[in-house]
UniProtKB/TrEMBL annotation:
The keyword Glycoprotein does not apply. InterPro entries: Cys_Synth/Cystath_Beta-Synth, TrpB-like_PALP, TrpB-like_PALP_sf. Transmembrane segments: none annotated. This is Cysteine synthase family protein. It comes from Terriglobus albidus. One of its GO terms (biological process) is alpha-amino acid metabolic process. Its cofactor is pyridoxal 5'-phosphate.
Length: 301
């Protein structure tokens, strides 16, 4: 993904047993390894075209990893400086990726969770003049998926129609954008939230989650995700253990994904029991950023 260009990721049918195929958007194939490339490119290129940022300017974002990695990559390509603000405790792999793209990292106290990171980002905006993408409230987050990802899905899915779309909610941009884009195309689509259970507090190790075992899935933080803009919204709860086990099975089938992919897939299987027609979900990110986490504990000697 270079400035002014976009990458179309595959949509493939996958099964893990006796259930209808689930149509999975392989977003981990984006250049930085996650679906967050879409929002990083969309937000920063739009701000550049509008004259709100220029080469050499500072960009700052609060993120547990994937958004910051994507912002670091796009900033490197477009000549911006980038600072990622993350609570202590995120996996070392994510920090190394950000630094590899030339980004800087500010760690905030673990006990303050994502809220401490958000406060620090606001300070950088006030005192350092940083441009703030504000992923949890920026409507361009959802718009990137509405005009991009959803359009790709419609062109890729056999028959050109989708019955339901399933996603965990972090910023909410993926689910909201896909739902609105698919509705724009005429699909009478059911939006479904995949929600992990056995939750921990916001301040736990992965900082942005109500499930510390499924990074990037957040409760009550997004200003983009609202039930009133998703008519017919369903919520499907998935045990953390089930999501992790499914992630390992998906990896064993040759798809190098992270824990949120297992969460989404489990919820999509349950959705297929309730809804007739093609079910679409997203595999948001790649496995490499989780090598030192629980996901790979069974593979370490």
């Amino acid at each position: 993904m270079y400035p002014g260009r976009s990458l179309i990721t595959p949509l493939v049918p996958i099964t893990l047993g006796d259930h209808p195929p689930i149509w999975c958007k392989l977003e981990f194939l984006n250049p930085s390894g996650s679906t967050k490339d879409r929002i990083a490119r969309f937000i920063l290129e739009k701000a550049y075209r509008e004259g709100r940022i220029k080469e050499g300017d500072l960009i700052a974002e609060a993120s547990s990893g994937s958004t910051s990695i994507a912002m670091a990559l796009v900033s490197a390509q477009m000549g911006f400086r980038f600072i990622a603000v993350m609570p202590e405790g995120v996996s070392a792999e994510r920090a190394m990726m950000i630094r590899g793209y030339g980004g800087e990292i500010i760690l905030t106290p673990k006990e303050e969770g994502i809220f401490g990171a958000l406060r620090e980002v606001q300070r950088l905006g006030r005192e350092e003049g940083a441009f703030l993408p504000l992923q949890f409230e920026n409507e361009d987050n959802a718009r990137a998926h509405r005009v991009g990802t959803a359009h790709e899905v419609i062109n890729q899915i056999p028959g050109g129609s989708v019955a339901a779309v399933v996603s965990g909610v972090g910023t909410g941009g993926t689910l909201v954008g896909l739902y609105e884009g698919l509705r724009d195309s005429g699909c009478n689509v059911v939006p479904i939230v995949a929600r992990p259970i056995n939750r921990t507090s916001f301040g736990d190790v992965e900082c942005c989650s109500f499930s510390a075992r499924i990074p990037g899935v957040v409760d009550r933080l997004s200003k983009i995700f609202r039930e009133d803009r998703l008519p017919g919204l369903l919520t499907i709860e998935v045990e953390d253990d089930e999501a992790i086990a499914a992630t390992r099975k998906i990896i064993a089938k040759g798809f190098p994904v992270g824990p949120s992919s297992g969460l989404n897939f489990c919820a999509a299987i349950e959705a297929a029991k309730r809804i007739n027609g093609p079910i679409v979900t997203v595999f948001p990110d790649r496995m490499e950023r989780y090598f030192t986490t629980e996901l790979f504990s069974t593979y370490r000697s």
